[in-house]
Amino acid sequence: MTAPGVVATRTDARSTTRRGLLRLRAALLGVTALVLLSSWYAFDSVHDTIDTVRDRSAPALLEAAVARSALAEADSVAIRSFSSGEAQLIGPGDRYQNQIAVASQSIAQVAEDNTLGESGSKQLRVVAGLVVAYTGWIEQADAHYRQGGGSTSLAAVDLWYASRLLHEPGSGVLAQFDELVKAQQAALGDQLDGSSTTFWRGALVAVPIIALFVLLVVTQRFLRRRFRRAWNLPLVFATVVLAGCGAIAVFGVLAQQEVETAAGELRDVTSTWDGRTSTTRAAAQDELKNLVTKLCAAADGGCGDTVVRFLSDLRQTGTPDPVSDKELTDAAKHVNASVAAADDHAGLETLIPIGAVLIGLSVLLGLHPRIQEYRYERR
Amino acid sequence: MIRLLIVLVLLSALPACSGAGAAGKVQIMASWTGQEEQRFLEVLAEFEKDENVVVEYVGTRALSQVLGSEVRQGTPPDIALLPSPGELAAYARDGHLVPLDGIVPSGQDEYSAQWLALEKVALRDGGEQRFAVAVKADLKSAIWFNPGTLRSPVPRTGEELLALSDELAAGGRTPWCMGLGATPDSGWPGTDWIEDVLLHQAGPDVYRQWAASKLPWTSPQVREAWTTWSRLAGATTVRGGPKSALLTDFVDSGRALFGPQPGCLLDHQASFIMGVYQGYDTAPEVARDFDFFPFPAFAGKPPASVVSADLAAMFTDTPQARRLISYLASEKAQRIWPRNGGAFSTNRKVGPSEHRDDVSKKIATILTSDQSLCFDASDLMPPKMRTAFYRAVLEHVDDPSRLESLLEKLEIVRSGVPEEERVEFPCR
Q1: How close is the nearest chain A Cα to the Cα of B403, in Å?
Q2: Stretches in chain B below the pLDDT threshold 50
Q3: Is residue A166's pLDDT more than 60?
Q4: Could you tell me the domains of chain B?
Q5: Hey, are the CB atoms on A161 and B186 less than 8 Å from each other?
Q6: How far is it, in rounded angstroms, from Cα B409 to Cα B405?
Q7: Can the peptide bond before residue B184 be classed as cis, meaning omega within 30 degrees of 0?
């Protein structure tokens, strides 16, 4: 016969064990949910960044660079056609028409991929309106040039107006494009900052994972002490799955680094495009200078303050080495490949909820028989 | 997973909450950039502060092209500031504008009948409705000079002006500064010249008929205006000659007025040029470095002036757009511009004394005086006629010998202007 005090002590011990098991289960499930939420949040922002870069920022920035380059090229070939005399038969030429078509398509594409909302759309419409005005002046130059005689000098004036509409610092089409590209790059920078691997973001992911790991170890030890079993297999499985989730989190960091690298490459490509556009612009402006100064000399007078300012701005312009189409296409392909690699790593995001569900089920499976055991004994 | 969804839903609601501070947004488009834009933004800032509404301003010199493109795409701004009643009429007749009767106070006690008439458009059904408010006016009949370099007395008649120009040229000095470049609408500074000469040589009645596309371009009065302009500002009297005038932007033409050795002595420009002059590197000072005299009338004609105005029209009917257009016409907004300089109000309650300097006060006095004020003819013309006029100016400056053929071409364009597009606007 057992003394009443001893019975009371055993009942207390059973009750403590059951309470402990219930608390451990609640804590394990709670921290598993935390692991799910924190990992999902961290991964999801990386995924969003990759999606934005792949679907919007990269195409918009590359198309904007293409549009700028095509407009500069169109202006250059038009001026050359008029200054060489080819315009008598072919006007500004087929290449001019092609480049204007490329520029129009690219502007439409930039509008589609616009990441700047309504302000970006407005600016693009302003640019599109200015391109219409630009082509109007080139058509006028063509009409004057074909009239021949004294009208050819007016054709040069029309070209001057057209070219200034394109190149005027601050308000010209290319300057407006520059503003747009800067704003898009700033938006991309903000997006990257929003998902960057900071200490707090790392802690947000690591702390729940470590906490869950510690809890799993504590639970194993608790079970070993109270039930004299070496290992609870479902909990071992949960620990292995948790280690997998930790590894996936590392891939998230890797994906972020890859997309940051891709964004850097994107900036490099657009700046290379800009370098080529600058070279084209410099050559075209130089040709325009010859055309205009010839006109002023023929008029036997000064060229006026606007031309003087134009000439002084020309002298300050540098001319970087030209880059071939092939180099630019390869660089753009490389950016796309880098973004795709980042996307592959970020694609592991979907495994996180699966892992969390597996951990939760393993916890329930591992602790359920022990809890049931105690419920049975209490009857 | 449900918790995750709840968190996501809550997170997605955050931006909406954070934007709830402002009571809406209005988009407004105008042609002002640079200093003019800054001054307009100061007017808008008061509205934003008082009404807690965000105003998005788009300024582009290619206003006609950009606005046309936006309207075609179905995304016009809420409000646009049109410098041309001709364009206003075209948009109103095509049903793009919201009538302002009952939305904006009638303004009869604050605006003269002439300005109010400008805001109305005759519709195809024979009716007439108010579609705009005139928010800013400019005097176009002004000839600017540097009091430090032009010692001759100010001409009081058209004949005296011709004599002064001849006298300066004979003395080896270049009378006129000129810049016709104004992309994308190069040529308009020359149309201001033709308008002024025609008004002061042929009188307000002929001017009104011509502005309404009812007087042929080949008529003797119009031809005389072109030849008088050539005589005043021809190949030998314009700085650098005609090619230089064609290649120079109108904002640069006045630079040569200033400095120790001025390149020219007179600049025919609208009153908004004051702000441009003040932005030059040499920082000329109003009254000390530049002043103006009104374009003088020729013998037998009354004193008169060409004026222009910017008309605010509403494309989208929203409560905040209604509030903004009412505010722009209000005495409060109209007082801000003159206070900051370089802009003039048509509101009677904003008197000349509101202006900071004597030159501005002189302009404001003319704008509110009893003399005949005629609206800028090219702005009254339908867009096709206006563009032809701009281009004709460039052709004429390049080669004045082809005037007859040029006037015939302009006449062809005029004869194709439909009757309903001929905006007749009497000089006050």
Answers
A1: 14
A2: 1-20
A3: yes
A4: 24-138+308-375 (3.40.190.10), 140-306+377-421 (3.40.190.10)
A5: yes
A6: 6
A7: yes
